[in-house]
């Protein structure tokens, strides 16, 4: 019966489209290969522009390292790719990455919807490559040449790198540590696929809204696989909910790697601390608040109550993955309406406001004691301008304790704080609505699949800058070398 439960769960993952086919794998592999070639050409372009010695043109190079769901092998047809661009010491993020590489990518026919996210905790470029969404942060190492499969744990490459590069590298380092530490990669991947589907359906997935991100769920899944290396898939899912429903938070979750348990300063303790597996002193970045901790813990308990009856004749996996019923659970919602003059500007505006959502969540907790931020992004079809709308669940019958205009004024101050005044901005409107005022799509239990809206559109009439005519091509015959000695060694063969 246990093996039967495991097989039915695997079949469910296939039916949900969570297991990629060979065509999907090839499509992503080709996109990464093309992107690597562009990055190598970009490094040589920057080498020429910097006036570095001619011999650098031969050796200077960069590469692309994947991480996230693609790096862990748990992506599906709707997943984006987290890809890290790694470059040499002389290629800066402000000029060379966000300007030169941006223009080179924008000129490519495979690339669309490209824009820069410079104010994020980890700055990156976001675009589509052959229709695949890609998030591309940047890390530069104190070397001239980056090997294609650079060892991100080698102290030689990590010496004296800047803070932004260190943060950008942490995703790759964490992924590779997890794959090294789990006893069976295929079993771990199956567990993680299931847990991610559960988290998305139950509304506890999206780090910016105070819930889990991909790295949190990956570490929790790896932790269960480590502790029970011979258990079946169905048994591991049962154990996942049993262990974390009863976990004594804020005791941190730490993967076993013969690393001494770190001392956590009291001011650093989060509600659910989860250690990054690549470092004994760093923890996964978390936005969890009192409300989201309560929601996550309740979902762990619900999962435990359901899966402990796994071997009863009428057990059904679909109940575990049933979408969270926001409209049935809450009678009151705060509506967050974000709009901009066109779809091009809306993406940047929504991304910036979402990065400040934790401030709004904490304020609503102060006023009402609880708030459940639904991660699903809706579109208000009654509005004329492009928009994205959120509906967050509030305690029923407490509308008299909150004035939407005052909360909106408070949150706008947080949104304005740190905003580059040269950046594109939009409008925001907060209001309190009741369950019957929700749009039909929000009144339904939940969307069956968690998808990201496509905010940006490509203007076919817009001129693209031809990067290869603007920048010196790789065959620079008239290149004049300098007499400078290289400050940094060349890495790789």
TrEMBL record:
The chain crosses the membrane at residues 204-224, 230-249. Gene3D superfamilies: 1.10.1410.10, Beta Polymerase, domain 2, Poly(A) polymerase predicted RNA binding domain. One of its GO terms (biological process) is RNA 3'-end processing. Its main location: nucleus. Keywords: ATP-binding, Magnesium, Membrane, Metal-binding, mRNA processing, Nucleotide-binding, Nucleus, Transferase, Transmembrane, Transmembrane helix. Residues 187-322 form the Poly(A) polymerase central domain. Residues 450-493 are annotated as: Disordered. It catalyses: RNA(n) + ATP = RNA(n)-3'-adenine ribonucleotide + diphosphate. It is found in: Nucleus. GO terms for cellular component: nucleus. Mg(2+) 1 binds at residues 80, 82. Polymerase that creates the 3'-poly(A) tail of mRNA's. This is Poly(A) polymerase. It comes from Capsicum baccatum.
């Amino acid at each position: 019966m246990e093996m039967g439960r495991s097989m039915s769960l695997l079949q469910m993952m296939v039916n949900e489209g969570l297991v990629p086919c060979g065509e999907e794998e090839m499509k992503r592999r080709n996109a990464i290969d093309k992107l690597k070639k562009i990055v190598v050409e970009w490094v040589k372009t920057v080498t020429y522009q910097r006036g570095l010695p001619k011999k650098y043109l031969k050796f200077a190079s960069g590469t692309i390292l994947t991480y996230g769901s693609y790096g862990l092998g748990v992506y599906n047809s709707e997943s984006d790719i987290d890809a890290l661009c790694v470059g040499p010491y002389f290629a800066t993020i402000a000029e060379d990455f966000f300007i030169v590489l941006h223009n080179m990518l924008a000129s490519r026919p495979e690339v669309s919807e490209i824009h820069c996210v410079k104010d994020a905790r980890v700055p990156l470029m976001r675009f589509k490559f052959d229709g695949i969404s890609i998030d591309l942060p940047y890390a530069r190492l104190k070397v001239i040449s980056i090997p294609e499969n650079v060892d991100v744990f080698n102290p030689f490459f990590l010496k004296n790198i800047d803070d932004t590069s260190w943060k950008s590298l942490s995703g790759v380092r964490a992924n590779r540590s997890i794959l090294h530490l789990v006893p069976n990669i295929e079993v771990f991947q199956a567990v993680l696929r299931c847990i991610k589907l559960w988290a998305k359906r139950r509304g506890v997935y999206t780090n910016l809204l105070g819930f889990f991100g991909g790295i949190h769920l990956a570490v929790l899944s790896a932790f269960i696989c480590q502790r029970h290396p011979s258990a079946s898939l169905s048994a591991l899912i049962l154990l996942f909910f049993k262990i974390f429903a009863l976990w004594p938070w804020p005791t941190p979750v730490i993967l076993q790697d013969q690393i001494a348990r770190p001392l956590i300063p009291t001011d650093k303790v989060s509600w659910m601390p989860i250690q990054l597996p690549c470092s004994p002193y760093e923890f996964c970045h978390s936005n969890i608040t009192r409300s989201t901790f309560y929601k996550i813990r309740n979902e762990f308990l619900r999962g435990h109550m359901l899966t402990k009856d796994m071997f009863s004749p009428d057990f059904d996996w679909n109940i575990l993955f049933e979408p969270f019923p926001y409209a049935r659970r809450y009678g009151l919602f705060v509506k967050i309406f974000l709009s901009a003059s066109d779809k091009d500007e809306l993406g940047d505006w929504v991304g910036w406001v979402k990065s400040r959502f934790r401030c709004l969540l904490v304020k609503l907790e102060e006023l009402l004691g609880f708030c459940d931020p639904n991660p699903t992004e809706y579109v208000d079809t009654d509005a004329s301008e492009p928009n994205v709308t959120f509906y967050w669940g509030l305690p029923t019958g407490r509308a008299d304790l909150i004035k939407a205009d005052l909360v909106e004024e408070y949150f706008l101050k947080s949104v304005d704080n740190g905003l580059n005044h040269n950046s594109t901005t939009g409008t925001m409107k907060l209001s309190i609505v009741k369950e019957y005022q929700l749009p039909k799509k929000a009144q339904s239990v939940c969307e069956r699949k968690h998808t990201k809206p496509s905010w940006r559109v490509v203007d076919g009439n817009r001129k693209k800058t031809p990067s290869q005519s603007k920048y010196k091509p790789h065959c620079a015959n008239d290149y004049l070398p300098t007499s400078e000695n290289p400050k940094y060694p060349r890495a790789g063969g």
